[in-house]
Amino acid sequence: xxxxxxxxxxxxxxxxxxxxxxxxxxxxxxxxxxxxxxxxxxxxxxxxxxxxxxxxxxxxxxxxxxxxxxxxxxxxxxxxxxxxxxxxxxxxxxxxxxxxxxxxxxxxxxxxxxxxxxxxxxxxxxxxxxxxxxxxxxxxxxxxxxxxxxxxxxxxxxxxxxxxxxxxxxxxxxxxxxxxxxxxxxxxxxxxxxxxxxxxxxxxxxxxxxxxxxxxxxxxxxxxxxxxxxx
Length: 231
Known about the structure:
By secondary structure, the chain is of the alpha/beta class. It has helices spanning 3-15, 19-32, 36-56, 62-82, 85-93, 110-121, 135-144, 160-172, 190-196, 205-230; strands at 96-102, 124-128, 149-153, 180-184, 200-201. The protein is 63% helix and 10% strand.
C-alpha cells in the first residue's frame, strides 16, 4: 500500500483498538522505509484524535476509549524504541515539556493517562508522575525537568484544594511566572481555574492539547514583547 493508504489504515487500527493490526502496520512502515515520525503523527495520531471526538459525542464508551488509548500508548512506545536519538528528541520536545499528576488523595489515573498519551502524540514531552502526588513532589519534578507546563488532575471534589495548594506553593517559592499551570478533572471548571490562579483548564484530552498550545504561544508572545521593549 502507498503512504496515504498506510496512514489511513494506521488511524483505523487505533479507532478499532486493534493492537495486532497496528504493530503489523508499523512493521510494514519500516519495510517500506516510511518516516516513522510521520506514521506516528499523521497515521496513528490521527486515529487518536478521532477517538477523542467520538468519545466527546458519546459514540464510544469510556472503556472503549481506555482500551484504544492503551493501544496508542503501546504503539507510540514501540516507535520510540525504533527511532534514533535525534528523531526521539524531535518528537518529545518540539512543543515543550509538561509535568502531569493526579493530586494527593486521588487515585484516579485513567483520564490523565489518556491526556498524557494525546499530548505526547501532539509533540509534547510528558513526565507523568502518576496519582496521589503531593504538590511539593509535583513542583520538584517541574523544576527537575525544566517544565513549561504543570498539569494537575483532581477527580474528587475533596481533592480540589490540592490544586489551589499548588498555586499557593508556586507563589511562595517565587516561581509563579516560571511555570504555566493547567487543571482538569470532573469537578474542575474554567471558573475554578481562574479562582485559584491557574492559567488554563481543559475538559478532555483533545482540549488539553489545544489549551496547552495556546498557553505556550501566549507566553512566547509575552516574552517577545518584553524583549522588544528592552531593546
